[in-house]
């Protein structure tokens, strides 16, 4: 299962947010492949299309797709030099697919700020610097090794050095490795370095509970937005404290509480959706009377690979798939109407699954 790591300085609200995530957490029986670990929370991805399909098909159950949030506490200034439990935490970041960086945008004199005062840009740069320094170390080691190997006359190493030098240059200028444009081939060359600053990032601006309805006008949030815009990153304003309270409510109570706060949806839902977008994923659906379900694939996955997400037997024995796009199905009104309209396509092994496809797989067992 794909995962997002939650990072940030101490006392910015990471644990509070993570507790809200686990409270709101998914039915883990539905997700046999999720990690069992106190620092990992599985979240379901809210998706209007899944709700609509459920309305159309009225199945016995509906299962959203899910991914994992990992609480990576303990990142402090000096982590790259082993401060705190530095290296251990950096190793945890290496394993996640994307990063949610929590930034403190709330004032509260009772809660110590590790750097003395609330200053979101400073905080972001402190964390980013640790990640950059850790990457500098990885890149320099690799350059040294590749240079040695180059002496044998192998061209691949020369190319590797060239790419690594470009990344090193960016890192020396305090820029993350993701800011360096790489071709697919170049990406493969550096993939096994598992650089921390290659991972996509979004900022969760943690605002105070009374400022949550007006978060966009919070000057700290505005600073974070400006900073994030420069690197093309998204910002989700959220009040971790409010989310922790919301997570304990359900149904009507939740709706009432949101209305009192002047909010339309929970910040956690918006954060989950933004994180899912950040992971660069597509969702396809299966829709049967037993179960309507959303599944996650990476962009560019072909039909057999998509089938394999359900079960490896589906991939091995794949024959073909019946496919209808979400828009066509909704316009037709039902699966049988879509069939009559000729919108149910038969696709083979080379078909690249699109976001929103409703798939029915035919396979040999
Ligand atoms: P972490 O060290 O980043 O995991 O931070 P915690 O989640 O433990 O939060 C540190 C302290 O800040 C706790 O006492 C929280 O209750 C408090 N806190 C978190 N979010 C908010 C908030 O939005 N407003 C206020 N006033 N306090 C908060």
From TrEMBL:
Record-level Gene Ontology MF annotations: ATP binding; ATP hydrolysis activity; GTP binding; metal ion binding; ribosomal large subunit binding
Record's keyword annotation contains Membrane: no
Coiled coil: 129-174
Domain OBG-type G stretches: 2-258
Residues binding ATP, per UniProt: 11-16
Keywords per UniProt: ATP-binding, Coiled coil, Magnesium, Metal-binding, Nucleotide-binding
Domain of life of the native organism: Bacteria
GO CC annotations, alphabetized: cytoplasm
Gene3D superfamilies named in the record: 3.10.20.30, P-loop containing nucleotide triphosphate hydrolases (3.40.50.300), TGS-like domain (1.10.150.300)
Cofactor: Mg(2+)
Residue stretches making up the TGS domain: 280-363
Acetylation keyword on record: no
The family this protein is said to belong to: Belongs to the TRAFAC class OBG-HflX-like GTPase superfamily. OBG GTPase family. YchF/OLA1 subfamily.
Role description: ATPase that binds to both the 70S ribosome and the 50S ribosomal subunit in a nucleotide-independent manner.
PANTHER family associated with the record: OBG GTPASE FAMILY, OBG-TYPE G DOMAIN-CONTAINING PROTEIN
Name of protein: Ribosome-binding ATPase YchF
Organism field: Paenibacillus oralis
UniProt lineage: Bacteria, Bacillati, Bacillota, Bacilli, Bacillales
Name of encoding gene: ychF
């Amino acid at each position: 299962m794909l995962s997002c790591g939650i990072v940030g300085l101490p006392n910015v609200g990471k644990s509070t947010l993570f507790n809200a995530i686990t409270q709101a957490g998914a039915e883990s029986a539905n997700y046999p492949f999720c990690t069992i670990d106190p620092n990992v929370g599985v979240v379901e991805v809210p998706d209007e299309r899944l709700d609509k399909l459920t309305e159309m098909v009225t199945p016995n159950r509906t299962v959203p797709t899910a991914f994992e949030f990992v609480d990576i506490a303990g990142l402090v200034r000096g982590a790259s030099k082993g401060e705190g439990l530095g290296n251990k935490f950096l190793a945890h970041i290496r394993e996640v697919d994307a990063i949610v960086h929590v930034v403190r945008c709330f004032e509260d004199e009772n809660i110590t700020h590790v750097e003395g005062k609330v200053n979101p840009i400073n905080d972001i740069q402190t964390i980013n610097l640790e990640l950059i320094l850790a990457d500098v170390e990885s890149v320099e080691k690799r350059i040294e090794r590749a240079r040695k190997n180059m002496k044998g006359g192998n061209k691949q190493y020369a190319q590797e050095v060239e790419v690594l030098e470009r990344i090193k240059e960016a890192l020396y200028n305090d820029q993350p490795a993701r800011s360096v444009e790489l071709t697919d081939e170049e990406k493969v060359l550096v993939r096994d370095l598992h650089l921390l600053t290659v991972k996509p990032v979004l900022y969760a601006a943690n605002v105070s509970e009374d400022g949550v309805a007006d978060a966009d006008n919070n000057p700290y949030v505005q600073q974070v937005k400006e900073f994030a815009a420069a690197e093309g990153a998204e910002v989700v304003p959220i009040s971790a404290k409010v989310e922790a309270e919301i997570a304990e409510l359900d149904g009507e109570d939740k709706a009432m509480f949101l209305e009192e706060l002047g909010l339309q949806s929970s910040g956690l839902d918006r954060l989950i959706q933004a994180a899912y977008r950040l992971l660069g994923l597509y969702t396809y659906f299966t829709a049967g009377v037993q179960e309507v379900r959303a599944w996650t694939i990476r962009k560019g996955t072909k039909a057999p690979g998509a089938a394999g997400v359900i079960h490896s037997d589906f991939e091995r024995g794949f024959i073909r798939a019946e496919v209808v796009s979400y828009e066509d199905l909704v316009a037709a009104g039902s699966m049988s109407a879509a069939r009559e309209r000729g919108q149910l396509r038969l696709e083979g092994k080379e078909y690249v699954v699109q976001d929103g496809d409703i798939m029915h797989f035919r396979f040999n067992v």
